[in-house]
Structures
1.
Amino acid sequence: MSQDLFSPTKLGSIQLANRIVMAPLTRNRAGQGNVPQPINAEYYAQRASAGLIITEATPISATAHGYPATPGIHDAAQVEGWKQVTAAVHAKGGKIVLQLWHVGRISHPSLQPGNALPVAPSAIKPAGQAFTYEGLQDFVTPRALAIEELPGIVADYARATRNALDAGFDGVEIHAANGYLLDQFLRDGTNQRQDEYGGSLENRTRLLLEVTKAVVDVAGAERVGVRISPLNPFNDISDSAPQRLFNHVASSLSPFGLAYLHVVEGGMGGEATPDFDFEDLRRQFKGGYIANLAYDKARGNAAIASGHADAIAYGAIYIANPDLVERLRQDAPLNTPDQATFYGGDAKGYTDYPTLQG
Ligand code: PHB
């Protein structure tokens, strides 16, 4: 029998009631100390009919932050805050994994402990501006991480994973996409290191593999996913040979036996992108595959029926449609997301989108 968005499946050890995944979405509504609040639990619980929820990107350490009011997973109060979220989602039968995030150079001294410079593989300033508590400010030239500091970053991922499991998550997703720290190491536009973490494909992939091993050692491979975005130019990132690089990334991750690879299959802003064979990428990786980027119901069903993807992650449309699964099932009209309330604010544009029930 042919599978579609509504067929149950398993990604690693995580049982999904359907193949409609809520993509990670930054919403900037955490409380003081980057602690999740009751309203965040309400927001995620409203979306618990998704086969799987991937949380908003969640900083793994104080230096991993790059935006205001993002919830962290590096202290006890944050773990307590997240417990309300996982309990609320589980009470409605949902599954939820936490996305582990280090922004690297996509930050600003005003968001860093001691107003320090953000860190990166190499001291290359991104074009553009950081979102800070004081408004938009130009990015600065980051500080290149010393090789001696990298084990500490790997340890931060491991500790954050322990925290996520303590908070009740069903698993974790390593964010290696969208121009943040691990992606900055992968791509040659941002990684110009001369040591074992720069240069060759093996070297540029090394930090991601060390992080993956550390996270797998804590959570078990069957509860770990990795997100990549081979073509996304977001955050001023680039690579001279993305197919070569990301085929290598996928084939190097494959032996871990991970729950899934989650792939942003283009530019997040709809940018024109070079040719890329995502089927070829997919063949390099044994394990689940979550496809993301502007899929609708028909394309989602087609990608699942053809075997291209095991599940489809829906982003902006999930902001506006808490009951997206039911709406897609019924071919009901979708609410339109209000961009003005995507980042920060209160319940407006967050927990007040109507369901079909009203
Ligand atoms: C954002 O805040 O715009 C953002 C955060 C994480 C992503 C992508 C975009 O992976």
Note: The chain has one domain: 9-341.
2.
Amino acid sequence: MNTRARAAAAAPRSGKPPREKKSSALAEKFKRLGITRQEDLLLHLPLRYEDETRVTPIKTALEAALFGKGEEEGGDSVQLQGAIIDSQIQFRPRRQLIVRLADASGAITLRFLNFYPNQMAALAVGNQVRCVGEIRPGYFGAEMVHPRFRVVLPDTPLPESLTPIYPTTAGLAQSVLAARIDKAISAMPLAETLSAEFLAQARLPTLWQALLFLHHPPADADARALAARQHPAWRRVKLDELLAQQISLRHAYRARRKVGAPCLAAEGKLAAALVRQLPFALTRAQRRVCAEISADLRAPYPMQRLLQGDVGAGKTLVAALAVCQAVESGWQAAFMAPTEILAEQHYLKLSGWLEPLGVEVVWLTGSQKGRARATQLAAARTAGLIVGTHALIQEGVDYERLALIVIDEQHRFGVQQRLALRQKGQAPHQLMMSATPIPRTLAMSYCADLDVSTLDELPPGRVPIRTRLARDGRREEVMAHVRKKVAAGQQVYWVCPLIEESETLQLKTALETHAWLTEALPELRIGLMHGRLKSAEKQAVMAEFVAGKIDLLVATTVIEVGVDVPNANLMVIEHAERFGLAQLHQLRGRVGRGAQESSCVLLYAEPLSPTARARLKIIFENNDGFEIARQDLQLRGPGEFIGSRQSGLPLLRYADLETDADLVETARTLAETLLTRFPEKADQTRERWLGEKEALLKA
Ligand code: ADP
Ligand code: MG
């Protein structure tokens, strides 16, 4: 398009009145700030404040700025008031407006590099002006550059409260935003939803008091508590925000209890038979968690339970016991894993456990085609347990009596996939498993619609994994270590660098890594595993590794989750600085599965970014997945942390799960009380914080 055509296209085509256009452009800007309703204005809180309640004599301000004397510290903004005694445009070094402002104590220069005619008029000699800004040493002595100013009458009263500075967006002036907010404040107080007794006991103001205070704090307000957002007014607002979140999620939780689901009330003979078969005893944590799940399955409404436990805690067995309860009760169970390798491993393990007990276990994956697929689909209709990838939820897959769905590594699946699986059964029970532990406060807030079980104990006899960090330059030493391990009859993983941007490059790197390792370690039997291998090839490689016919397995992150080969005791991760914390912890969890001493070597290339350095330090210092997750949350914030589970979920704006952990607990209790005893107040709270955003929470 040429310039003229573009200009024509940009010109308004219809005869829309310009006013309406302008106001909708403004509405668009408010929308960008998340403001569409009156309540949104009230809940749009200042980032910080400026103190315009006092005027400092010019002489005092100058001395303070230049010599650091007096109460005004250098770098802070001050408010001055005086008469304009000189105002002129200078052209050297460039066009600018130089104004002199004087009060009884002295005079100061105000410098404006950009200015409009109306500003020039306001700054005419003789006008009385109030201005706010920082004093800095300039070429011609101390001056203020671009102060905020307004013309006043000599006796115009000073404001009694601090001036709020709001978060805003390009093209929306502070003054316009502040005026809208003030109008909303005078138009509509917000109703209180918490009882006077509670507030008194918690030493919190009402929400309305808190909002008035935060929009316009008095001059003598505790500046530090305000800035740290720990003032009672801030705490009251944050409590309300957390309360809205809890109410919304707990509401969904309660609503689910009104939906019917099959009661899986079997006696437990099948599960007991499985336990008898095992060469080991259940850990105490496994027994406790199994009891929690078993009770859920007996209930007439669908379970939605998150089972979290560190890598190696034994979640698969817990799931298998739940499957037993479904099958013994005459229903079917499905077990879904995020990758084909993992699904396959689960299939082998689960069929090994369950087929001897007479349970039919069927394997379903996307790579099955034609006749084989038709046979599997037919078997899946009635089999006791169906294991597979997301092929389990595709079109054309039907189950006659599906009552339980187990989702392994649930954070790898999107909300959509989980919903699709749920729709395959009427209202099946769901067990979601995750080895990426969710820190307690996060679980209590963003996962409040789920029940959570935690395996907080590893099976006995596990030797902690030793983690070492090595600069890329020390590769030779690492190879020597690999040789030694293999000579001692052990097996090794070599994880290729992650290349997020391109799968093709990732594959290329894997092939290259395999090639040079084969050359460098000719005496070893070296295998290669990556995402592009055909399913049967992957299966074959994995089987060889399990059987000990491969010494060193070069692999991409396809082996990240679930893979379980007890004789593999050393893992080398290349370019460890490119991996996320959860991923490193998962990968490292592939070793240390037997009773021998295991180690993980993290090779990294310099220079390291500060976050990469922080991540490597955390993974080096910690073996406990919960602690790693906690620190990860601090490093990344909840938005990235919860990832696909609730993408699009409105995040908390004010409350911080780390510093306001106590408020999360309070909000949880209060939410139950409101939902049970004062449902209309629960609605009010939810409505004002979430409004239409709420639908997203229900996914
Ligand atoms: P994860 O929780 O990471 O999914 P797995 O279910 O893969 O862990 O279990 C890791 C290994 O521990 C498996 O080989 C499993 O058979 C074994 N295991 C599970 N429970 C116990 C137990 N109570 N005692 C000993 N080994 C166990
Ligand atoms: Mg697992």
Note: The domain at 269-455 is CATH 3.40.50.300 (Rossmann fold).
